[in-house]
From TrEMBL:
Protein name: TIR domain-containing protein
Alphabetical list of PROSITE patterns matching this protein: LRR, TIR
Compartments, record wording: Cell membrane
Annotated source species: Strongylocentrotus purpuratus (Purple sea urchin)
Cited Pfam families: LRR_5, LRR_8, TIR
Classification via SMART domains: LRR_SD22, LRR_TYP, LRRCT, TIR
Length: 916
């Protein structure tokens, strides 16, 4: 309080010293000719940079914003703003103000923002702003204030706010108070009493001369975020925040803190404990954290002690932090930790130990941390992880980027059954064993970028939950031992093999014709940039199994030629990049099956010709990139998708002649956006006046007259069409007959499909087999139905599921008649079985009665024609409803199940009419 009285006395002396000067200047300012600019639309006046020594008073009285910054004003007097009672924003920064009279702002009842920074203010009158009840922001940084000013009043009994502003505290709407870069030397209890009825979002005391914080000094400060950075605070006393529930976030960084002094919580009631949830103490000089260092901070959720000098911790350093979730210890000098270092903080979920000097990582450090879910050890010089079981069973994310790990084996992550994300990028040299991930069965995301070498030996084959895998930027060639690397990795959505130096021959095993990507039935994104695919056209089956693929990136892979069918099965593809390769010609049917393709990048190749029908079936194409190629012309009648929104054709040597006239007209009339227009120019082979001009400078009507060859050709075509039409009319019945026969021979007849679906039948599937063949049903058919056709709930498996109490033949016929599909398993033994052939005959008779192809024959082995019964041969010759099972061939089995799924979709009606 003595500081307050001292400031008041100084203020009185200054007032007396400048009284006469103020009267003279106040009178002068009324008649002063100013050069301020006023804006009537937003009711503002700009008087900045005018060399003013006082505030102009002859401006419009309805100003809302007033700027008098960057002048030579030294005093603000009681009458400086009496004419501007509508002001909401006042900026008087960057002046030489050292004196502000007590009632300077009392007339500004609507004032919200007051900027007084970059002046020479060392004292402010008490109650300077007590009338400004709408004030939300006051900026006082870079002055010479030595204490917390009581500018909103010193009436400690004020708890109510008057609506008219009379006798009201001027801070009820305050959100920001900036006192940084002043001369505040100390903070004492009572400094904030005058502000206790305020509510600040941010209270900034950065860069002052504060050297200590007394006990409960912030009790009366109602601020959400308190900033006290860049001060000289040797010790951090935890009891400085006693009694304050308002401060949620505190930052005290770069303040030279060497130690934390805990408070004695046993001698104080819990209702005085701080309400802080986030505490930032980074970039100080802490060497250790004592036991129960922050005991009493029961609501603290985030603690940042990064970039200090910590070399050790104690088991009880974080005891008392009942709500702590996130702990940042990065950029310290920690080499080792005691066992169970963080067990006291029972809710701790995230620990960041990056950029320390941890040579050997010991899983026992985290014993007792049952809530721990994320651990980060980025760039921590780790050479080894002790092969000790992890007790942090809830750990889900482990970051080991940029260390020096030598090996990862099956024992490295024992105990981490719930680990979902693992990043071991940039660890060299790193050896990864075949069974390295067997203990982490829940892994969903693995990143292993920038390794020196890696050999795929089936490490990911049985990772059923893996969704994301990144092995990009390998420093040597990725070695692949076989093409069965992802046999059962069916959940994988993203695979990144960019810059792994693989070749086209690695994508397909030529002997078995099996793709490296077999088994990746859920893959959405495949990145293969920067690889060595010189022989890309020879791996036609590389992407055959990826029918769910959405994004394929082949950027800069040295591709020279594209096979017509290489993208044939990618019907779900929406993004395809072939940019920065060596492609010269693209086959007309290269993209014919990509009906969902939206983005196609063909830029930076050597393409010379765009085939007319190249985009005939890419009906969804929206973005097409063709820049930086060797295209000289676009042939007339070249199909351009109507869906196209963005087209880039810059940096191509277009020959602007009459052959390109149609394309020039299309560019002018089309709704497609053409990017890089200024770089889309005519080449030296164009008309002379158009050389090196933009293609939009080419107006065909100025250069291209009537084409006599076109007129003659069109006329001849009309005569020919008319003659053929007359001849066709005379022979119309003969032609109709021949065309009908041709249609039947080529495309057959239109299939008629049963209206009823599987749900309309009592049994959706009926399997008939010999008892000796039940193994195939249990080992193959049942797992398939459970995994890929779970909707089939009513299935009859052999004689065991027949209706009890009925005669055998009656029960069989009842199941056949009420089944959507009947499947019979055939082999050499079954065709010799009388009862099995009776079942087959009953099924065929039912099929003839219903005229629906409801039978599927599955051959478990090849049967010689001489050994095949006549009934089976007759059935096969008419409808061919059979499938052949192949053992030890995963691709063949995948095709078998795909055909089976297709056969289960509908029942076609039989057609017994044979055309003559």
């Amino acid at each position: 309080m003595m500081a307050v009285y001292a400031h008041a006395i100084s203020f009185v002396v200054l007032c007396g010293f400048t009284l006469l000067y103020g009267v003279v200047m106040d009178h002068t300012s009324i008649t002063l000719n100013h050069t301020c600019s006023e804006n009537s639309s937003d009711h503002s006046a700009n008087c900045s940079y005018r060399g003013l020594t006082s505030v102009p008073r002859n401006l419009s009285h309805d100003l809302r914003s007033f700027y008098v910054s960057h002048n030579n004003i030294s005093m603000l007097l009681d009458k400086s703003f009496v004419n501007y009672k509508q002001l909401k924003t006042l900026d008087a920064s960057y002046n030489s103000i050292y004196l502000i009279e007590n009632e300077t702002f009392h007339a500004l009842l609507l004032l919200k923002v007051l900027r007084l920074h970059r002046n020479s203010i060392n004292v402010l009158p008490i109650s300077l702003l007590e009338k400004n009840v709408h004030l939300s922001s006051i900026i006082l940084h870079h002055n010479i204030l030595e204490g917390i000013p009581h500018i909103v009043g010193n009436n400690l009994q004020t708890t109510q706010f008057a609506e008219d502003g009379e006798n009201a505290c001027g801070c009820k709407n305050m959100s920001r108070f900036d006192l940084s870069f002043n001369k505040v030397g100390s903070l004492e209890q009572g400094d904030f009493v005058a502000l206790r009825n305020c509510s600040f979002d941010r209270f900034n005391l950065n860069n002052n001369d504060i050297k200590s914080l007394s006990r409960a000094v912030f009790t009366d400060l109602q601020a959400v975020h308190l900033l006290i950075n860049y001060i000289s605070l040797a010790e951090f006393y935890a009891d400085s925040f006693l009694g304050n529930k308002a401060i949620v976030k505190v930052t005290i960084i770069c303040s030279g803190i060497r130690s934390i002094v805990p408070m004695n919580t046993s001698e104080m009631p819990r209702d005085l404990f701080p309400g802080i949830t986030k505490l930032y103490l980074s970039r100080n000089e802490l060497i250790t954290i004592p036991k129960y260092a922050l005991d009493g901070f029961e609501k603290l959720q985030l603690l940042d002690i990064s970039s200090n000098r910590l070399s050790s911790l104690q088991n009880e350093s974080f005891c008392g932090l009942k709500s702590l979730v996130n702990l940042d210890l990065s950029a310290n000098k920690i080499k080792s930790l005691p066992r169970g270092s963080f067990a006291c903080a029972e809710k701790l979920e995230i620990i960041n130990l990056s950029r320390n000097d941890i040579a050997v990582l010991d899983p026992r450090w985290f014993d007792g941390s049952h809530s721990l879910s994320t651990l980060a050890f980025y760039q921590s010089n780790i050479h080894e992880i002790k092969t000790i079981p992890w007790n942090s069973t809830n750990l889900q994310t482990l970051n080991l980027i940029s260390n020096k790990l030598n090996s990862v084996t099956k024992n490295t992550f024992v105990g981490l059954k719930n680990l979902k994300f693992l990043d071991i990028s940039m660890n060299n040299p790193l050896e990864i064993s075949v069974d390295a991930f067997e203990e982490t069965i829940s892994l969903k995301k693995i990143i292993m970028q920038n390794l020196s070498k890696f050999t795929m030996t089936g490490s990911f084959r049985n990772m059923h939950q893996l969704v994301f895998l990144d092995m990009s930027y390998l420093r040597s060639r990725l070695e692949i031992t076989s093409c069965g690397q992802f046999s059962h990795t069916s959940a994988l959505r993203t695979l990144n093999l960019s810059k792994t130096n693989i070749k086209a021959e690695d994508l397909v095993q030529f002997k078995s014709n099996r793709s490296l990507f077999s088994g990746l039935v859920s893959l959405y994104t495949l990145k293969l940039q920067h690889n060595l695919f010189d022989d890309f056209h020879q791996v036609a089956n590389a992407f055959t199994t990826l029918w769910n693929l959405r994004e394929l990136d082949l950027f800069e892979c040295r591709i020279q030629q594209i096979n017509s069918g290489i993208f044939g099965n990618l019907t779900s593809l929406t993004y395809l990049s072939l940019a920065a390769n060596h492609i010269r010609i693209i086959p007309e049917k290269a993209f014919q099956d990509l009906q969902n393709l939206r983005v196609l990048k063909l830029n930076s190749n050597s393409i010379t010709v765009i085939e007319k029908q190249l985009f005939s079936r890419t009906h969804s194409l929206q973005n097409l990139y063709l820049q930086d190629n060797q295209i000289s012309t676009i042939e007339p009648f070249t199909l351009i998708p109507q869906s196209l929104k963005v087209l880039i054709i810059a940096k191509n040597p277009f020959t602007c002649t009459c052959q390109l006239a149609w394309f020039s007209k299309w560019l002018d009339k089309g709704n497609t956006k053409i990017d890089l227009r200024n770089e889309t120019r005519c080449s030296s082979t164009s008309f002379k006046l158009l050389r090196d001009q933009t293609i939009w400078s080419f107006h065909p009507k100025d250069y291209c007259g009537v084409n006599i060859y076109l007129i003659v050709g069109v006329s001849l075509a009309i005569v020919t069409v008319f003659s053929l039409s007359v001849l066709a009319y005379q022979k119309r019945w003969w032609l109709n007959h021949k065309l009908f026969l041709l249609k039947l021979a080529i495309i057959g007849y239109e299939e008629i499909i049963e209206n009823q679906g599987p749900e309309d039948y009592e049994y959706q599937l009926n399997l008939m087999f010999r008892e000796e063949d039940e193994w195939w049903t249990n080992d193959c058919m049942k797992p398939f139905l459970q995994g890929r056709m779970p909707h089939l709930e009513h299935v009859v498996f052999g004689d065991n599921d027949l209706h009890p109490g009925s005669f055998y033949l009656n029960a069989i016929y009842d199941v056949i008649e009420n089944s959507y599909k009947t499947v019979l398993l055939l082999n050499n033994e079954s065709v010799e079985d009388t009862w099995f052939m009776t079942k087959l005959r009953m099924a065929v008779e039912h099929m003839n009665d219903t005229k629906l192809e409801k039978i599927i024959l599955i051959f478990l082995e090849d049967i010689d024609d001489d050994h095949l019964p006549y009934l089976v041969r007759l059935l096969l010759s008419r409808n061919k409803p059979y499938l052949l099972w192949v053992d030890d061939d995963e691709d063949g089995q995948e095709l078998f199940w795909a055909k089976f799924e297709k056969s289960m979709r509908t029942n076609r009606e039989m057609n017994n009419v044979i055309p003559v």
